[in-house]
Design a protein that fits this description.
- The chain contains nine helices and nine strands.
- With 252 residues, it is of the alpha+beta class.
- It folds into two domains: 61 residues, Orthogonal Bundle (Arc Repressor Mutant, subunit A); 175 residues, Beta-Lactamase (2-Layer Sandwich), CATH 3.30.450.
- Strand 2 and strand 3 form a beta hairpin.
- Helix 2 packs across helix 3 and helix 5 runs antiparallel to helix 9.
- The protein is globular.
- The two termini are 25 Å apart.
- 31% of the residues are buried.
Length: 252
């Protein structure tokens, strides 16, 4: 692993935290030695991407410049998708998101949020385990059976709630159903009270490159309403986005 790759791994180690970590914590997260971590942090500090306070290192706002071209370029997936997400939100008054796979996780790359109060705090850049989310299952359904078996070895299924599917056999059956139905509905498996539905988005080569979803409070919207009303709206906008990507000849 070269120095640039190591530096990026160090920055990624701050993901999912409150923005600060010690060198020891980063070393444990990345598997790199503390000596390597200290050298990377020194370089990143000199470049203005992190700052040191006591034993902790904090991210600086400059790190945002690394992602800015991806999010703001006129032909980037987030920029192209945003109007379609907003169309969904305006029609149903619920938040709508777009996510892609990054390794074994889903990462939110665009979002149209409403003022609904949700326990899960999701923003652009948020990352979640893919196996128990509607977005993740849609994206994973595009993987081969062999790749899914390897995924399960790397990511043993764990219970987030009493409703989380933890049997490999049942989980694979669920993914098979997503392939057949071309959508995923997840009912309170990630968190009690959270229900979501997702559909795929394809590129100019008809390859699944992202997933679009709507997340709702289970006490307000039933599974039946999600599937009978919201799904159709979501599918129309996902289809429109896929068509737009095809017109622009954008591929994964």
């Amino acid at each position: 692993m070269n120095s640039l790759a190591r530096g990026l791994e160090v920055l990624r180690a701050f993901s999912g935290t409150d923005g600060h970590r010690t060198a020891a914590q980063i070393s444990k997260h990345t598997g790199l030695s503390r000596a390597v971590i200290r050298r990377c942090l020194y370089t990143l500090t000199e470049a203005g991407y992190v700052t040191k306070v006591g034993n902790h290192y904090h991210l600086e706002a400059k790190v945002l410049s690394l992602a800015q071209p991806y999010y703001t370029a006129s032909n980037s997936l987030p920029a192209i998708a945003q109007p379609f997400l907003e169309n969904v939100s305006q029609q149903i008054n619920e938040s709508c998101s777009l996510a892609v796979m990054d390794g074994d996780e889903v990462v939110y790359i665009a979002r149209s949020a409403t003022q609904r109060i949700m326990t899960v705090s999701l923003t652009t850049g948020s990352r979640l385990q893919s196996g128990c989310t509607s977005l993740g299952r849609v994206l994973l359904s595009n993987w081969s059976d062999q790749a899914l078996q390897a995924y399960l070895k790397r990511n043993p299924l764990t219970a987030h709630t009493v409703k989380t599917v933890t049997s490999n056999r049942e989980w694979l059956k669920t993914i098979s159903s997503v392939r057949k139905d071309n959508f995923s509905l997840v009912d309170e498996e990630l968190e009690i009270g959270l229900r979501s539905i997702a559909v795929p988005v394809t590129d100019a080569r008809a390859q699944v490159v992202a997933a679009m979803n709507v997340g709702v409070q289970a006490t307000r919207i039933s599974q039946k309403v999600l599937q009978s009303k919201i799904l159709a709206i979501l599918q129309i906008q996902a289809s429109g986005l896929s068509q737009r990507l095809s017109e622009l000849d954008i591929v994964n």
